[in-house]
Structures are given as structure tokens and as C-alpha cells.
Amino acid sequence: MGSERTEMRKRQMSATQETSDPLPGQQGVGNRGSNACCFCWCCCCSCSCLTVGNQEQRSRRASHELRRDDLPTCEESPTPTLEEVITWAQSFDKLMLTPAGRNTFREFLRTEFSEENMLFWMACEELKKEANKSIIEEKARIIYEDYISILSPKEVSLDSRVREVINRNMVEPSQHIFDDAQLQIYTLMHRDSYPRFMNSAVYKDLLQSLSEKSVEA
Q1: How many CA atoms does the CB half-sphere of 163 hold within 13 Å?
Q2: What are phi and psi of 171, to 5 degrees?
Q3: Are 50 and 39 in contact, with CB atoms under 8 Å apart?
Q4: How far apart are the C-alpha atoms of 89 and 117, rounded to whole Å?
Q5: What are all long-range contacts of 206-213, with beta carbons under 8 Å and residues at least 24 apart?
Q6: Considering Cα of 144, then 147, then 149, then 154, what sign does the dihedral take?
Q7: Which residues, in sequence order, are CB contacts of 47 under 8 Å at separation 6+?
Q8: Inter-axis angle of helices 99-111 and 115-128, to 10 degrees?
Q9: Is 197 within 8 Å of 203 (Cβ atoms)?
Q10: Would you say 193 and 114 are in contact if contact means Cβ atoms under 8 Å apart?
């Protein structure tokens, strides 16, 4: 009788040990250990969720760069005529009316380290032409990051009232979200930069070059 009880205890202990021992390939599943990532249950360092996340991030970055390239940085324009350049002295509006005038003025702004004013104005003009809501939202975000954000090196000078209105409207931007800011920058270029442009070497050299060509012809 005693031997039978001893044999039964051995069998029970053997069964308990077999149940508690982990199966091959399952070590560490219950206890994830220090190598487990914070995104999923697996213990590998290259889990699928990280891979998918990185792919999505690269995709968003590529889309962002592509759409940023859609914004104008330079306008194609023929060489201005002497008559056209002369009209630029009549008013700022006439200077800004043609691509050649805007490009020449932008060249001058670059010498004064204020080219971002023209770039912002041009980007706003492009935004007004858009009708697709998703494109409007994407371009508005890019314009905000490039020219409105205080963290941008190309931030334009705007008063607090205009900034507050833009910040509120960025929740659901329209193609006219920057109209007040665009007008403010246009006025700034008109009053501040335009008079210096008319007395600059950029304008005078261009006028003299076209005048000499006209005489030779």
C-alpha cells in the first residue's frame, strides 16, 4: 500500500513538471524580456508594426516634399522690354503685374534678405487658384509652416491680429485663408522695399542695358 502511494506521488510530480516546462520555441513568450518593443507583443527588434510605421512615415514625407515642390519658387518670363521696365517706375502695381517685373523685384529682395515676402505672396496667389479641398488644405499647411510659423527661418512679418485669424482658420482652411496676410506683405513691399528697388543697381543696370540695346538697334 505504501509503495503504491509513493508511485502515485512520483507520477503526479512528473506530470506537474512536464506541464510547467516551456515548449521549445516558446521561451520568453510569457515574459517578454528587455528586447520587447513598446509597440507590440513580439520580442524581435524588427517587428512588423515598426516596419509599417516607417513605410507610412516615408510615404508622408515623399508626399509632403512633392507638394512643396508644387509651390512656385521662380516664374518663367521673357526678357522685359525697355518700355516695360520704364513702366515699373510708374507704380508698384505695374511692377507686380508681369512675371518679369516680379522676378526682377525678387532678385532685388534677395540682396536685402527679404525674398520670403515675394515667395509668400506668390504662394498665396497659387493657393487662390485651387479648387480641390484636400490640395487646399495641404498647400495651406505648407504655406503656414514656411512663412507663418514663428519657428520658420522664412517667417514673414505679420501683426498679431492677422496671425490669430489664420491660426483659427487653419482648422478648416480655404483658398483665401491668407488674404489679409498677403495684403499686409504686399503693402510692406510697396512702402518699404519698392522705393529702394527703384534706386538700386538691379533696376538701374537693367534699364541702362536695355536703353543701350535700343540705341544700337
Answers
A1: 11
A2: -60, -40
A3: yes
A4: 20
A5: 206/80, 206/85, 206/104, 207/82, 207/85, 207/86, 210/80, 210/81, 210/82, 210/85, 211/82, 213/82
A6: positive
A7: 37, 39, 40
A8: 150
A9: yes
A10: yes
Spatial separation of the C-alpha atoms in residues 118 and 73, rounded to whole Å: 9
Q: What DSSP string runs through the chain?
A: -HHHHHHHHHHHHHHHHHHHSPPTT-TTSSS--TT--SSSS---SS-HHHHHHHHHHHHHHHHHHHHHHHS-S----PPPPHHHHHHTTT-HHHHHHSHHHHHHHHHHHHHTT-HHHHHHHHHHHHHHT---HHHHHHHHHHHIIIIISTT-TT-----HHHHHHHHHHTTS--TTTTHHHHHHHHHHIIIIIHHHHHTSHHHHHHHHHHHHHHHH-
Whole-number Å distance between alpha carbons of 192 and 17: 87
Cell numbers for 174, please give them.
480655404
pLDDT top residue among 74 and 46: 74
Query: How many Cα neighbours within 13 Å face the side chain of 105?
Result: 31
**Of 60-69, 118-127, 170-179, the least confident:** 60-69
Cell 512633392: give the residue: 66
102-124 tens-digit pLDDT: 999 999 999 999 999 999 999 99
